[in-house]
Amino acid sequence: MSISLDYTNMMADAIHSKFGILEEDIAGFVEQTKEIHQHIQARRDNGELPFFDLPCNLEVIDEVLNLASDIQKSFDNLVVLGIGGSALGTTAMFNALCYGHNLQDKGQRGGLPRLYVLDNVDPDGFAAHLALCDAARTCFLVISKSGTTVETTSQFLVARQWVEESVGEHYRDHFVLITDPESGVLRELADREGFRSCAIPAGVGGRFTAFTPVCLLPLACVGVDISSLLKGAADFSRFVCHGGLESNPAYLNAVLQYLAYQKGLKTSVLMPYSDRLKDLADWYRQLWAESLGKKFATDGTVIHIGPTPVSALGTTDQHSQVQLYMEGPFDKVVTFIVVDEFDQDLQFPGYKASPEMSYLTGHTMGELIRVEQQATAAALVRNHRSNCTIHIPKVTPETVGALIYMFEIQTLFAGYLFDVNPLDQPGVEEGKLFTYALMGRQGYEAKAEEYATIKAHLKPRVLTCK
Asked: Of the residues 319, 455, 459, 466, which is catalytic?
């Protein structure tokens, strides 16, 4: 496995503008990188960063595979109920490694269940997905570390009643609760009511759960080789778990992104040229936004900092977003992901009725998508726009595992550069508290009063067209 980071087009001698990075800019972070790495390693040794060691936790494989085998034998549909980190990682890896799975009939799927990840409480969307399933042949994975996530709680309540109306008192067999190992509403429910359950390791936050049962269980149920997924991350650790800046792609890309931010490029675009990796960009968007977008520095100073992540898809978004990247404000750095070899390729035949199309004859679709990425990168350079490219050899469990692990470590390291805590999300909590209050949850009366006060001080300005 060979993964490379080509940052040629982020450098000043390539894009010839004040937004380009100088060699001395990077060199200026060599010592700081060593210091940050030592601090990270000390925290790992103290057990404060358990996500680092998840790829080497082989005990989880047997637990997950045994439960997955039971689910495969009993159910045609597997539905994940979760949101944010409880959903995005599964979606990203499922679509990367099982592309088109749900469109196949049962025989083509080898008898494996279909997988649906329901990460919203839109009643139309939720009801439509339930209508696709037979309750008697559907299993639900209910995922929430705290057990109090309102979206997941509401989904569970609807799904539980739906299943019970079909199968009666055996409805518990249709649910697996994935939650905190010791405490919380779902843990208490599992212990009291006898639901099957899996533990999210202590100290692992939602957006860093890719290598826990949160993602491994649903992926194993649909046939993903989770051993290879973990091995890909574990093997890649030798490249991203050391303090050498210029030979560590996670640290180096974090520094490059930080330098770009300091030069005014405050929007970070991730643009894979692969349909299978489209949702990896969505997963990364949450990882980057929730980890780095913070009001406070680590010393409590108000800084309101953080790059804005944007997901795009090549070549699709060459015809939607790239116009903005090419000629809009100088506030973006684009990171491409390129797949060097596709599982399949399609050759373009000749067509005598249209000589204008003859230039494509003999070329392949895989060649075209790679050339389009190269052309877009060159056009960005010509317009003095910063961009870099991550190359992976193929989309496999190993390469996907390596990519995810690299991005996780990159994000943690970037938190130290931006001087924020990349492991919390206080801005998300405020909205949760108001939601509890507005839904009448006991104990949140003060938040309901605060909400009423906010509304009372607003002068309504509403345009209604009837």
From this structure: 319
Q: CA-CA distance, 86 to 80, in Å (whole number)?
A: 9
pTM of the model: 0.96
From CA 21, how far away is CA 29, in angstroms rounded? Answer: 13
- What are the residue ranges of CATH 3.40.50.10490 in the chain? 4-42+243-418, 52-224
User: Are 276 and 395 spatial neighbours (Cβ–Cβ below 8 Å)?
Assistant: yes
Q: Is the pLDDT assigned to residue 1 strictly greater than 80?
A: no
DSSP assignment of 305-343: E--EEEE--TTGGGGTTHHHHHHS-S-EEEEEEEESS-S
Q: Which CATH class is domain 4-42+243-418?
A: alpha beta
Question: Which of the following is catalytic: 37, 101, 263, 290?
Answer: 290
Domain 52-224 has CATH 3.40.50.10490: yes
pLDDT at 429: 85
Per 3-state DSSP, the chain is made up of helix, strand and coil in percentages (nearest 5) of 55, 15, 30
Q: Does 432 participate in catalysis according to the annotation? A: yes
